[in-house]
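Encode chain A's predicted structure.
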Amino acid sequence: MSDPRLLAALRRAEIRVLGRSASARRAATDRFRAEGATSGLVRGFGVAPKLAAGEPISENVIRFLVTNKLSPGVLAERGVGAVPKKLGAVATDVVAAFDATTSEPPGTAVKHAIAGELGSLACVMDRNGIRIALAASHVVAPPSVFPLAGDDVWVGGAPRADLRAWTALSAFATVHADVAVSDTALAVTATWPDGAAFGGARDYAPANGPFTFYGFVSGARTAMGQPILGSTVSLAVPLVGPVSYVGHALLDVASQGGDSGAAVRDAAGFLVGLVVGCTSTAQACVTPWQSLGPAIDQLLT
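Encoded structure for chain A:
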């Protein structure tokens, strides 16, 4: 779902229905609940495309996430009003919410609520007392989507986090880290997909290879790294354009579409960076923890 015209239309629909400011979104929440979206059962809502297997997107709907999807009869017995089929001129869609205790492994597909699956969940970390999910900004917050803090971030096909902050990317920009952080109830990463213990995070050093990264397209890949810290890597980033990445590392293995945001693990099990793209010489470009850690801390302040 990377058609810029479709993404722009969805963004206009979101602004029309929910408003642009935080106060407008709160007012929309109150209005929806007054019209039947009971606060005790509704866990979240937002504008989203109506999807049907094998069919093109036909319309935008207001999608509600509920604790349990109950029949009208059961709702009536409990004295709870059902979500109306339409709010104003916009149709609604009710979806059962996820199990917030389920853990997602690194490499699980992630996307912004109105974007296609573009990349990978790196891991879930407890950073300065805040549990966050990490991915690349251009995966969950490309400029053509115009995301707002609080928008759904989808993990494994269902909303599992709220977008908190991200590094803003634009064509011809020079950046030190391409990272988005999201508030989440997912369990903190304890092991990697192959069962190895998660050792936390530490600075990237080529001597600590071989390095493994987990993308939802390519799966686990292993390669040795090259020290190019302080140098610049230029990449054509999807939905953004040419971006110059400063102080990045290269791995001698190609990444594919969907690997963006993948966790890079060293031989001892530590997170040492995130994959952000692939060079023209088929090397994975990695934001090392030396840049990633300070960027995350800044986004959390």
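The helical segments are 4-18, 22-34, 72-77, 137-140, 289-300.
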